[in-house]
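We were asked to recover a plausible sequence for a given structure. The inputs and outputs are reproduced exactly as logged, with field labels preserved.

PROBLEM: sequence recovery
POSITIONS: 804
GIVEN STRUCTURE:
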């Protein structure tokens, strides 16, 4: 305060001095800047800028001297205050001493009073420490007891095989009690035994899993056989249903309106065979149930042991090895005997894997199962290709194909793609049918070689049903009386059975193979069987083994029955292929046994012609220049007619009408050709009118014979039959006509003599010229008028010679 007053005093003095000079002003400014703590740089620069630093030094020194007095005054003021304080402390010293003595007395009293309390406090603290130690000991014992209880429980679970609960106990000990266990001995024991327990559990579970791997192979084989067996049973039920449907369609086609049809719906199989037929991991669960408990237990234990990924890999590797071993085909056993076990093992394997995929909780992935399946498909295709290439028996191929198709049906239910397997089966379609055709060729050859060319005798109705009705060979719906003699020999039903078996085997191979519309394929091979195999075999039989008319007639009758049988074959193939009959009949081709049918009829006709030729040799006995007309026809014609009548009466019982008509027409045409040939031949030198009239009577007998076939022929057919000997009829008509030269008239010739050859007419007309024109015949007729008919005949001969 005094300093502030001093500063005001200095300021007032300077102001009072009234110094107005510049130096005083600079001094004041410097003093003000120093007092205010301002920067003196501007003043220094200004001073040096004016070149008068001495003025600045002077001002600074003056400021310092002015402050010394002020400092001195401040120090004096502070010294006085210090002296006063020391005096105050001296006055307080006596009070302090009195307070010290009072405090000492109070402390002595306090010490005397607090000594018993302190001893009691020490006892209390000691008791509290002991209590705390006891509590800690009790807690440690309790902790150890709980640990030992868990250890005991874990041991019990291990002894009972409840490994999961044992591991849970071990995990609880390790996570909740291990770090807190006060006993170092117990802790060391736990640290040693816990890994051993886990290792023990892992070994036991792996052993159980290994046993399951061994057991599941047997289970898989049985499982595959069962699944394929169910597929076969289902297929059989479907086939039975189709048979009933075909029977209903056939009866409907025959318009049996009195029949009532009812389709019985069969109950579903009480045992499931699909993917959802049984519960996961259970030993029951339907017909396809199997026990996955050891697998899932091992997987769960490895999850608990944090070894999930390693167990997944271990499982996949082992199953992959098992599948690889399943692919081994035994070389000691024929594949035909081992193929069911081979495919059943693979089918069971993938049924198990499908269950594991759906219920295993990620034990195996869909990609891994698909990878295994792809490997299996490639291997099975390779095995099938190899085995099919070695097989030379169609039935063996069919058996394996059927089983593979059943395998495909079984596994398709579980979502596996089987198209590659079906493609392999389809690929060997041609080979199978070639082998089947070869087998049928042998069977047909044996059946034909055993034929005795005798009509088949059936004594019982079941024989009729088996040999006639089963192939729809009957010509009437009326069941005949027994014993029944069929118009065909045993060759027909035997060959029909072979062809029907071929159709059924072909359809069996083509069906269930992924191809829905296979009728065209079956029909193609059926055409080959009938056209290439059966037709050729029949041709060979006809050309080598038929030696008599009765045998030829029987073969021709058989061919007519084969024609009806072929209709049945194509209908049967269409029905088995699921094709409507109207579509099959719409696409029917010509009779496939045409060559053998024509050969049979030609052979029969040829043999009959030989027989006829034998009778026609009697034509040599005819007196061609006789003036007497033979009564009742010539001898040769009577013999021919007797034979033809006998032939027709016999043939009507065997040959169909259309076949008999064709044969008779051929024979009659041959008779006509023989007569014309005789007339044109060297045997006949001259022809008399009586001989021509005798021939006319012979032809009339043929006409009568043809007309007497009325039960066999209609009037139109009888007229058509007479055209067989139209050549000899027109020749006789020409020779008996009044104007033979009309033959050269194109209009008349086309209308009445269109079957005649002008060269033959010229030859016969030359022989028919009236013998009175000869040298010896002119004596009795000299000078008489020439017969107009002879004149016309001479004109005809002349005209024909001119033409030739």
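RECOVERED SEQUENCE:
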């Amino acid at each position: 305060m005094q300093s502030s007053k001093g500063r005001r005093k200095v300021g007032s003095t300077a102001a009072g001095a009234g110094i107005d000079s510049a130096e005083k002003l600079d001094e004041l400014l410097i003093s003000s800047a120093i007092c205010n703590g301002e920067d003196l740089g501007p003043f220094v620069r200004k001073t040096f800028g004016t070149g008068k630093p001495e003025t600045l030094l002077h001002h600074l020194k003056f400021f310092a001297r002015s402050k010394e007095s002020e400092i001195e005054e401040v120090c004096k003021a502070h010294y006085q205050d210090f002296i006063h304080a020391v005096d105050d402390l001296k006055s307080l010293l006596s009070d302090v001493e009195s307070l010290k003595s009072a405090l000492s007395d109070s402390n002595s009293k306090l010490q005397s009073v607090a000594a018993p309390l302190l001893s009691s406090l020490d006892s209390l603290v000691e008791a509290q420490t002991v209590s705390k130690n006891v509590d800690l000991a009790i807690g440690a014992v309790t902790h150890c007891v709980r640990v030992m209880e868990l250890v005991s429980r874990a041991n019990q679970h291990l002894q009972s095989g409840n490994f999961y609960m044992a591991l849970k106990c071990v995990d609880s000990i390790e996570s909740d009690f291990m770090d807190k266990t006060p006993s170092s001995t117990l802790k060391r024991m736990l640290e040693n035994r816990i890994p051993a327990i886990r290792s023990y559990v892992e070994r036991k579970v792996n052993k159980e899993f290994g046993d399951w791997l061994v057991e599941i192979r047997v289970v898989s084989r049985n499982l595959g056989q069962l699944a394929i067996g169910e597929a076969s049973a289902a297929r059989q039920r479907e086939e039975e249903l189709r048979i009933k449907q075909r029977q209903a369609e056939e009866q409907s086609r025959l318009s049996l309106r009195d029949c009532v049809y009812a389709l019985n719906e069969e109950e579903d199989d009480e045992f499931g065979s699909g993917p959802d037929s049984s519960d996961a991991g259970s030993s029951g669960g339907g017909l396809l149930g199997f026990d996955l408990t050891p697998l899932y237990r091992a997987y769960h234990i490895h999850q608990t042991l944090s070894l999930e990924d390693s167990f997944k890999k271990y499982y996949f590797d082992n199953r992959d090895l098992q599948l690889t071993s399943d692919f081994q085909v035994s070389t000691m056993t024929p594949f035909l005997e081992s193929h069911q076990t081979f495919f059943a093992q693979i089918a069971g394997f993938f049924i198990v894997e499908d269950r594991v995929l759906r219920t295993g909780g990620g034990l195996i992935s869909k990609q891994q199962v698909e990878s295994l399946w792809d490997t299996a498909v490639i291997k099975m295709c390779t095995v099938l290709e190899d085995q099919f290439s070695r097989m030379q028996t169609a039935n063996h191929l069919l058996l394996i194909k059927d089983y593979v198709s059943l395998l495909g049906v079984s596994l398709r239910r579980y979502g596996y793609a089987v198209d590659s397997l079906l493609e392999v089966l389809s690929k060997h379609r041609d080979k199978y049918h070639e082998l089947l055709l070869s087998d049928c060729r042998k069977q047909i050859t044996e059946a034909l070689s055993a034929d005795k060319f005798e009509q088949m005798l059936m004594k019982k109705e079941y024989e009729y049903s088996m040999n006639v009705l089963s192939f729809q060979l009957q010509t009437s719906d009326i069941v005949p009386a027994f014993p029944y003699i069929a118009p065909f020999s045993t060759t027909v039903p035997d060959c029909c059975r072979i062809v029907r078996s071929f159709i059924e085997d072909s359809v069996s191979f083509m069906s269930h193979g992924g191809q829905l519309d296979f009728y065209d394929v079956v029909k193609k091979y059926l055409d080959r069987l009938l056209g290439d195999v059966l037709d050729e075999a029949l041709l060979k039989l006809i050309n080598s083994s038929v030696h008599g008319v009765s045998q030829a007639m029987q073969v021709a009758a058989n061919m007519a029955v084969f024609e009806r049988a072929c209709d049945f074959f194509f209908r049967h193939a269409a029905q088995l292929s699921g094709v409507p009959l109207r579509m099959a009949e719409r696409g029917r081709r010509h009779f496939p046994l045409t060559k053998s049918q024509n050969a049979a009829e030609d052979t029969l006709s040829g043999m009959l012609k030989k027989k006829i030729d034998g009778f026609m040799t009697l034509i040599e006995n005819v007196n061609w220049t006789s003036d007497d007309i033979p009564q009742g026809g010539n001898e040769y014609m009577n013999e021919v007619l007797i034979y033809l009548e006998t032939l027709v009466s016999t043939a009507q019982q065997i040959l169909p009408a259309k076949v008999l008509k064709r044969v008779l027409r051929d024979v009659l045409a041959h008779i006509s050709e023989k007569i014309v040939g005789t007339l044109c031949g060297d045997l006949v030198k001259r022809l008399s009118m009586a001989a021509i009239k005798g021939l006319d009577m012979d032809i009339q007998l043929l006409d009568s014979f043809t007309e007497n076939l009325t039960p066999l022929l209609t009037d139109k057919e009888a007229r058509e039959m007479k055209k067989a000997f139209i050549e000899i009829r027109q020749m006789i008509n020409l020779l008996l006509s009044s104007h033979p030269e009309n033959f050269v008239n194109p209009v008349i010739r086309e209308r009445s003599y269109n079957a005649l050859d002008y060269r033959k007419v010229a030859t016969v007309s030359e022989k028919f010229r009236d013998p009175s024109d000869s040298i010896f015949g002119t004596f009795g007729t000299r000078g008489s008028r020439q017969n107009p008919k002879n004149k016309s005949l001479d004109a005809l001969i002349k005209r024909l010679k001119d033409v030739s």
